[in-house]
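Predict the 3D structure for this chain.
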Amino acid sequence: MGVPDFAPAALGFEAPATAALYELDVGDSSVTLSAVSMGNPHAVLWIDSVDAAAVGTLGPRIEAHPRFARRTNVGFAQILSRSHLRLRVWERGVGETRACGTGACAAMAAGRHLGRLDDSVMVDLPGGRLRIDWPGPGEPLWMTGPAVRVFEGTLTS
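Done. Predicted structure below.
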């Protein structure tokens, strides 16, 4: 899935330097998040419960925040253990999705960058479970999960 890049410039994020966590003002409050590029920009919020996450309200506000030059995907991650997390994702330009491979990789990489996760993690999304493996900085992440047909159609000219 590529090598995660935590440099703010890699994801079009306005920040004075690379950090593991950033404060972002969102309306009348602020949130703490991680930011990482997986070839596309991701903000990851560390929350107590994905079930109670304000995905539909915070997701679009963070996606379009002026500090993200090209907008961003927003992950709401709940760490269950060092090898297991739950995740909901607000994808930029789409809204909440049932699964997001780069979002799962971004959450795992950000959690590992913080020292909160091991090098192999199960990520539960509403659409299913993925396994993400990352040997560490400078190395690519590996994603393993089911491949299922979700649509079949015919295109006519």
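Helices lie at 55-63, 101-113.
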